[in-house]
Specification:
single chain, two-stranded antiparallel ribbon, 11 helices, 62% helix
């Protein structure tokens, strides 16, 4: 069975699938069939392409892929807010018990340059392969039961909101939590999803601490807890 990393590599690095230059318009009134760009013969990847690639694995697959750029040790800028919004919508649908995700049609046709996606994948595929090497179906109720999916949906929703906050430190760790949790959801690996939920808790603590430090003039969450306990 092909791994996610091999599928992504094959899909995004297939030179025959993508073109990065525009084809000159034909001078004849009727263009030949091979000159008409198809849905994949172009230089941009759309959400519809990702949904087609995901197949039946949509929720876990999309959580992994959309959190990928921001979860890297060297995050790619410009992805946190739009992808955070998309993941928040996905997480709410997971909470509501939907089996297939819904997106507005305008989102499905929005494209990203395939060259940018390739740049992110080159950085992230080695990390993805490390997780794949230890992943296997286990503790599956964490990923398949209604309570388990609700907890995962709630955690990812909170992390997606954190990713949308334009403050340094509130993006990477929450994205890592979504990435690991989503990978467990993708492979029905409850152990990996639980590890991801731990990262989500850590991300929540860090993001909350940063926000509280801004609101209360430098007092971190730990300082406020110490003050509360001291009282």
């Amino acid at each position: 069975m092909p791994t996610l990393s091999s599928e992504l590599e094959q899909f995004f690095f297939d030179k025959e699938r993508w073109v990065t230059t525009e084809v000159d318009a034909p001078t004849t009134a009727v263009a030949p069939a091979h000159a008409i760009p198809t849905s994949v013969q172009r230089g941009k990847v759309t959400l519809s392409d990702l949904l087609d690639l995901a197949g039946e694995r949509t929720f876990g697959f999309l959580f992994v892929l959309l959190s990928f750029p921001s979860a890297l040790p060297i995050p790619a800028p410009g992805y946190s807010v739009p992808f955070g919004i998309a993941m928040l919508l996905l997480a709410v649908q997971l909470l509501l018990g939907r089996q297939e995700p819904w997106f507005p049609q305008s989102w499905r046709t929005h494209g990203f340059e395939v060259t940018q996606v390739r740049r992110v994948l080159k950085l992230g595929l080695p990390w993805l392969r490390r997780i794949e090497s230890i992943s296997r179906p286990r503790l599956t109720p964490v990923c398949t039961s209604v309570p388990g999916r609700m907890v995962i949906g709630l955690a990812i929703a909170l992390m997606a909101i954190s990713m949308m906050i334009p403050i340094p430190g509130t993006n990477t760790l929450p994205a890592m939590g979504i990435f690991v949790t989503g990978f467990g959801l993708l492979d029905d690996d409850g152990a990996i999803s639980l590890a991801g939920l731990v990262l989500c808790v850590c991300g929540f603590v860090v993001s909350s601490s940063i926000l509280l430090a801004i609101v209360f003039g430098g007092s971190s969450l730990l300082d406020l807890l110490k003050q509360a306990i001291g009282r």
